[in-house]
Specification:
3-stranded antiparallel β-sheet
Length: 69
């Protein structure tokens, strides 16, 4: 159980990004944003873009005190 004002975060690929933001909100977490994580040694596939980025989706359980931000 997440305490009041506690932070939740999860890594996600671009395919799951839309559903992850929906899951947070349906679960009662206030969606705060997305942080891109660049992976310089990501998997390269010839003829395609490199798979070198994931996303950190985060939110909080209700409002956060200004002192915590």
């Amino acid at each position: 159980m997440l305490t009041e004002g506690g932070i939740f975060g999860s890594f996600s690929g671009w395919r799951q990004l839309p559903i992850m933001t929906d899951v947070l909100q349906v679960g009662g977490v206030v969606w705060r944003g997305i942080v891109p994580w660049h992976k310089p040694n990501g998997r390269n596939t010839q003829g395609r873009f490199a798979n070198n980025c994931e996303y950190f989706v985060w939110g909080s359980n209700g409002p956060r005190s200004k002192e915590l931000d």
